[in-house]
Structure formats: C-alpha cells, structure tokens
Amino acid sequence: MTVEDLQETVCPNPECEYYHRAEGKAIIKRGKYKTGHQRYYCKYCKKFFMDTIGTAVYRKHLSGEEIRLIYRLFLEKNGIRSIERITGHHRDTISRLIRETERNPKMEEYLVKQIGLTASECEKLWALLENRKRKSRK
Ligand SMILES: [Zn+2]
User: Fold this and answer.
1) Coil, helix or strand at residue 36
2) Model-level pTM greater than 0.85?
3) CA distance linking residue 93 with residue 82, whole number of Å
4) How far is the CA of 24 from the centre of ligand 1 (A)?
C-alpha cells in the first residue's frame, strides 16, 4: 500500500468528523467489492466505502443525502429547475451532477450501495439520462 494510492480518497460519510477531509484522515484499503473495485475503510467512523473517483459525485460538495434526493427527484421526472426549487441547490450544480452521471459499473455500484437505488431504479435512471442526452443533441 502506497501513500499515493490513498491521496485522493476521502471519507464519504457526512456524519464523519473527516468527511471529505484529506488532512489527518485515517483511511485504509480493506478488500474488494464484487465488481472488483477497491474497498476502503475509515478508522474514524468505522465505515466501509468505495471511492468516488471516476463517478459523477467525485469532488462534488454534496452529502450522500443530498445526492440521493437529487437522483430521486430526477427519477420522478422532475426538471432541473424544480429540483433546484426543492433542494435549494443551484441548477448548475444539479445539471453538472446529472450530466456527468455515466453508465458504468462503478457508478451503478455507488447508486446501489451508497444511494440505495434498486436495480430497476438504476435502469430507469439510465433511460432518463439517455433521453436527456438525445434531446440536448437536437
Ligand atoms: Zn469516516
């Protein structure tokens, strides 16, 4: 295990004292997920997690709860403006999150494990994102 490997990895647990904090964090590698992704462990909050590098939520200053709410509202076919109104987040933040959400195993694992979406909700989300992309190309 090298220091470089863990440099970009911060605790994603909003209740943790070291949430998104690089300084003084105590994160170690602990096994792998089914998908082959590295599993991490925060010694402070004693929680396992997967890093978000390469997913839409990487380096977004949104808590897991806020991200969950945004995806849920999007799944219920709310537009960016109505999500803005409900969550109080700027529409640029929301549309960037949605735009950067790409279908890949890591993103899917994140949505299921950290956000609590079901497999069928993920399917619905990919379909909505695909629709959105098609519309914006017109
Ligand atoms: Zn933690």
Assistant:
1) coil
2) no
3) 13
4) 11
